[in-house]
Prior knowledge:
This protein is of the alpha+beta class. Among the domains are: 94-182, Beta Barrel (Thrombin, subunit H); 205-290, Thrombin, subunit H; 300-394, Pdz3 Domain, CATH 2.30.42.10. 32% of the residues lie in helices and 39% in strands. It has helices at 2-88, 90-95, 282-293, 310-316, 332-335, 355-363; strands spanning 99-108, 117-131, 135-141, 150-155, 158-168, 173-179, 205-211, 220-232, 235-245, 251-255, 261-269, 272-281, 299-300, 303-307, 322-327, 343-347, 350-351, 370-379, 382-391, 393-394. The protein has a six-stranded antiparallel barrel. It has a six-stranded antiparallel β-barrel with strand order 7-8-9-12-11-10. A hairpin with a 2-residue loop joins strand 4 and strand 5 (158-168). The longest helix is centred in the first third of the chain and has 87 residues, at 2-88. It is elongated and about 140 Å long.
Amino acid sequence: xxxxxxxxxxxxxxxxxxxxxxxxxxxxxxxxxxxxxxxxxxxxxxxxxxxxxxxxxxxxxxxxxxxxxxxxxxxxxxxxxxxxxxxxxxxxxxxxxxxxxxxxxxxxxxxxxxxxxxxxxxxxxxxxxxxxxxxxxxxxxxxxxxxxxxxxxxxxxxxxxxxxxxxxxxxxxxxxxxxxxxxxxxxxxxxxxxxxxxxxxxxxxxxxxxxxxxxxxxxxxxxxxxxxxxxxxxxxxxxxxxxxxxxxxxxxxxxxxxxxxxxxxxxxxxxxxxxxxxxxxxxxxxxxxxxxxxxxxxxxxxxxxxxxxxxxxxxxxxxxxxxxxxxxxxxxxxxxxxxxxxxxxxxxxxxxxxxxxxxxxxxxxxxxxxxxxxxxxxxxxxxxxxxxxxxxxxx
Length: 395
């Protein structure tokens, strides 16, 4: 036993020594590998730290041109938009001197003082539409000068008193006159040109001028959206509807891009308020203005309606004529007893079946003329003929 034990002790010692050395080698190798890896990672981090400022600088250099390019492009777009707007408004700029400021003074008179007391002052626009040796003729909105004590036209720094020559209450047009000899020496008011709407179509650019947004000189531009014919008292009007928002207190006109007057702005169509700027085509009201300038205002009956076609007359067993849908308040027609629902057949024997024929007939009449209106009226489910005498008034 002792012999065996002594023989095994060197063997055991040798085994332990070899195993310890192997562990030392593995630890040394691991340490070297770890040191190498740590060195690589540290080097990469160091390089990354050194690279970041350069990358940031490069990024900044890259972004700065992009920002500058965007700012340049934005400035170019703004410049192009301004140039486009200026180009569109060139027509207005060419004729803006034809627009004058109208100042109306409201007050109450007193026999004991020379001048009436001033309660309020209002402003609106006027546009010069004609001139002769004695007078400048200026159109403005009739309702803006109602009950005015005095009406002034501002020309430069001067104010000249104007007079209302005629008024067309139906289309809300007032014709003012200012003496040519009352203007300051060397001053002349350019007359605006009238334009046609025959070739005007949806999408065309139009300009609102005058006082469309309650302030004299306010101006806007937009597009014609659609056009339609609307029956009105004693005739019909072509209405021009735009995409420009309307001001309930605004007044003005529509111009085409050449600066020609093509429309008279409306505040209402029928009983509805106008929310987008809508104008009556000047083609339909130039005749009224010409007669006002000539001192021959239109006679007024005060009815409006639609034509009954032959097919409708046969189908519904009603007379063929002009079916009245409206009769104006305070009109000669209403005062004489004509009612909505009546069917007008003729005036003094001249057939009148639509608003166009009615308009043509009234152009041959004078204010104060007595006209016999032949019509049919529903009485106990049957249309009966009637004749009503009407004395024509003034529009």
